[in-house]
Design a protein that fits this description.
globular, 30% strand, alpha+beta, single chain, 5-stranded mixed sheet, Ribosomal Protein S5, domain 2
Length: 164
């Protein structure tokens, strides 16, 4: 499993505007639970600290809010069964190092899809079917995550840690 960061570019254009997200992350497998990150499921961990504390004046990436980080966690939870089957009995820590997107054309749900795409590209996980359609009346994309909830649970992080 690669420990070097991999950058994935998620693109969605099925309406008058699109979503573009560049996500850089790495994965490490350990025998014991990692010292950092948040447990997503048995054997799967996510560390969003680098993107939750990114300096707001650094134009090479964005600082994510707690809600946005929840969508990364949702993507990790969808990838967790495949991660667990690849490293049975071990712990896989996915660290998100950088996220970049145009804030004008953005939906936080796209972060979950971007993380799933990253997992497929970087780790060779099977694709997780995610359907997205454009709702013209709402002027936004509607994601269908399959049997999983359309919205991740509320963040366990304090909202006082800030966003952009």
């Amino acid at each position: 499993m690669p420990e070097d960061p991999h950058t994935s570019r998620y693109r969605l254009l099925r309406g008058p505007w699109g979503i573009w997200i560049e996500l850089t992350a790495s994965a490490a497998v350990t025998a014991e639970p990692p010292a950092r990150g948040e447990r997503v499921s048995d054997g799967a961990w996510l560390d969003t600290t680098p993107v939750r504390t990114h300096p707001p004046t650094d134009r090479r990436g964005l600082r994510l809010s707690a809600e946005e980080a929840d969508w990364l966690r949702h993507g990790a939870s969808l990838a967790a069964p495949a991660l667990a089957s690849r490293a049975a009995g071990a712990h896989t820590l996915v660290t998100v190092h950088r996220v970049l997107f145009p804030e004008a054309d953005f939906q936080p749900e796209g972060l979950a899809a971007a993380l799933l795409q990253w997992a497929r590209e970087a780790l060779g996980l099977p694709p997780h079917p995610v359907e997205a359609t454009f709702d013209r009346a709402a002027n936004r994309y509607a994601y269908d995550w399959g049997p999983h909830a359309a919205r991740p649970p509320a963040s366990s992080w304090s909202s006082s840690t800030g966003g952009r």
